[in-house]
Design goal:
Blueprint: H1 2-48, H2 50-54, H3 62-89, H4 96-106, H5 116-128, H6 133-159, H7 171-184, H8 187-201, H9 212-238, H10 248-264, H11 274-283, H12 289-330
Helix pairs in contact: 3-4, 3-9, 3-12, 4-5, 4-12, 5-6, 6-7, 6-9, 6-10, 9-10, 10-11, 11-12
Length: 331
Amino acid sequence: MEENTQVKKEDAEILENEQKGGKKKWMKYAKIGFLLLVAVFLIRYFYRNYDSYKNLDVEINWLVFTGAILFYFLYKVTLASLWHYMTKLNQCSIGYFRAITAYLYSILGKYIPGKVFMLLARVPAYEEGGAPIRKVTVCFFLENICTLLGAAFLFLISLFFFPNDLLNDYKWMTVGLVVLFFICINPKIINFFLKILERFIKKKDLSIPITYGQMIKVVLLFICNWLVVGVGFYMLVCSIYPVPTSEFLYVAGIYGLSCIIGILAVFAPSGLGVREGIMLLGLGLVMPKEYAVIISIISRLWQTVAELILIAIAFIVNKIMEFRKKKKKTA
């Protein structure tokens, strides 16, 4: 009997190891497929716009442009930290460094149509860390809501610096939408809809243990972070065309609006083409149209190159950390 029990245990261990090995292989193939998809969409976009980049005739202040990239770095790292803070509040966090690298890797997911790929890119790290994926998914949707709120608030402020009276009649409507957003982020309202979702998908543990005060704090942090990237975009604009500081909030607000429309346009990977169109319309009111075209094109390079550099840094640092861990184990 003891021998049979031992054999059964060994068989179960072998089966479990085989399943783990199969899962690792599947994850490896999924990562390769994911990277290939990202490469296809990025190459297609830049190939289609190659003539636009080739024919650019503009002098760039590279010192100011470098400052714009550094502000974008700061924006993305802070955004990753906010993501980690939200998972801590929702009791599904992993280590800070792993959370930051998982977030930075997931940036590639936005270059594939459908925002779900950003979430899927974060899942493996949280699965390995033993975090409930349902809670991580809820955090992902909350993050998108807070991102929209931050951008909407920045755009709202920018309306008061609008160069003409075109939007004067819509200012109070915008205020009303932002107030509505702040009401909707009340955890009681969110948990009400999450309970309905629990019944629909027959899953439990979707509710968030976050207070209303904590949610408002998170949204305010997102707003501050949008101001950071707003400074970066303003510096990018000034590196190509001089815009007075009095129009800083307007320029930052146009960037916020372009991001809102880009996020809502789920059919466009990373809002490709959509963001540029909004920037062209908005910036065309404060500068010659040809400069607005140039800035809308270069802004995509500014954003994409900065993100790829950050991902590369995260990858290198992650590999160094893994190498050190292996070295400690063998020592």
